[in-house]
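Researcher: I need the complex structure. Ligand is pyridoxal-5'-phosphate. Inputs:
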Amino acid sequence: MRDFTSSVLDHIGFSGIRAVFDKATQLEAQGKKVVHLEIGRLDFDTPQHIKEAAKKALDDGLVHYAPNLGLPVFREAVKNHLLKQHNLNYSEKEIIATMGATQGVFLAMGAFLDQGDEVIIPSPTFVSYLNAPRFFGGVPVPLEMKAEDGFQINLKELEQKITNRTKMLVIISPHNPTGTVLSKETLEGVADLARRHDILILSDEVYDQMVFDGEHISISTLPGMWERTILANSFSKTYSMTGWRLGYLAAPEKLMSAMLRVHQYAVGSSTAFVQAAGAVALNESQDCVKEMAAILAERRSFLIKSLNPKLVPVKPQGAFYFFLDVRSTGYSSEEAVNRLLYEGVATVPGTAFGAGGEGFIRLAYATNLDELKYAAEKIEKVLG
Ligand SMILES: Cc1ncc(COP(=O)(O)O)c(C=O)c1O
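Model: Output:
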């Protein structure tokens, strides 16, 4: 039999995060204790009122297809949220409910990329971005972000990456894996280049409620940027709803109409009763979000205090990750991860996040303080 696999997959492997998770699970099966700092999934349950809303929606009969863009009640909730949060004015036709931000990324790439179009991706980066363009004939162009620049986008280097095939630039803030929040200055520089070179921005803001230092600014609020920005967000992190698969995109109608056509044929519409619960999440008290952020802030402070400063040249400002610099230990990222795993702490090699990741490992502080204390001791033992 022939190998039926598409050649598109020649350059697309499995996620490096999964690889560590699988190894850690094997160790656990052998009876070893492992602290899981590799997976970007919070240890919090979804708040009860959101679960109740989903149950009620099911009982109310929300079991059929939703409109392709999403339930009106969901889009209205997102619209009000974006207005309140950023003073951004989107109509309900300019918001689409997606199956998590991950699917939103595919919509944006599917709607706008032609064969050979380049997508600049500041790297290291969240794994989806390295591969998503390739499914649509696009070419990911990594732009290395360095600890020496505080993991901000280097604007000079960004300009050098722009060619006449550049169609899109992805920005993530707060950032996975570095935890960096893009500064106003960086965002203004990026916006200036996007306007001058007529580039679309895909702005991933899934960690916007987890900022501990600095300020989250949506690039679409900057002059001339609303019209060229696709804002992606998700319920996964904000409300600890990774398994629900709910996110959204907001973009001007012309851009949305293209993405809607991809969405219609890719999934039709995202899950109706989940959207109803998402609307409740946005419309009701945000105390649950503040409580989760306060716990994360405490964990972050603990790690900043406990970890050897040489491992943390850039303090993460948001999200729930540390991108530890292991260059001074003499270990490669892979070696550092393996040694830590042997001591019962699972992390991810920076190389899993693409260019600029060698010499770093990612730690997600999505687990309780006791586990983090244990992990911090082991990190000191192995890398300190
Ligand atoms: C920066 C970033 N964007 C998007 C996602 C995917 O989120 P979702 O669960 O909404 O697909 C993640 C998940 O870790 C992420 O870190």
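Model: Summary of the prediction. The radius of gyration is 21 Å.
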